[in-house]
């Protein structure tokens, strides 16, 4: 369960490391986001841009202060699945996306939740090394 001002780890190779939630998108009445929800974030910490990087790799990079959209892929708050099992992760994590709901990065570094399949985020699931 993520709300305004929540700090979220980024698990793709878009250049961002930590982002802050500034808006929860969708029709949730309470204004909180869970796994699979889209949020608007601002980049708080980013990896420095290498001087020799050019072309397509540079165009997909984000810098500190950039405003992006993201999809939540893991949350600390436990979530009950329809089969009765409970899923909980060690951290809050997201993947940055563009306006067409495609990931900005080309790789995802760790596990994601399978609830993304219900939200039609198949591209993120295919990039992830493991789906839990």
UniProtKB/TrEMBL annotation:
SMART domains: Ribosomal_L14
Gene Ontology biological-process annotations: translation
SUPFAM superfamilies reported in the protein's UniProt record: Ribosomal protein L14
GO cellular component annotations of the record: mitochondrial large ribosomal subunit
Record has Ribosomal protein as a keyword: yes
Organism superkingdom: Eukaryota
Family annotation (InterPro entries): Ribosomal_uL14 (IPR000218), Ribosomal_uL14_bac-type (IPR005745), Ribosomal_uL14_CS (IPR019972), Ribosomal_uL14_sf (IPR036853)
Reported function: Component of the mitochondrial ribosome (mitoribosome), a dedicated translation machinery responsible for the synthesis of mitochondrial genome-encoded proteins, including at least some of the essential transmembrane subunits of the mitochondrial respiratory chain. The mitoribosomes are attached to the mitochondrial inner membrane and translation products are cotranslationally integrated into the membrane.
Family membership: Belongs to the universal ribosomal protein uL14 family.
NCBIfam families attached to this UniProt entry: rplN_bact (TIGR01067)
Protein name: Large ribosomal subunit protein uL14m
Species per Swiss-Prot/TrEMBL record: Kuraishia capsulata CBS 1993
Lineage: Eukaryota, Fungi, Dikarya, Ascomycota, Saccharomycotina
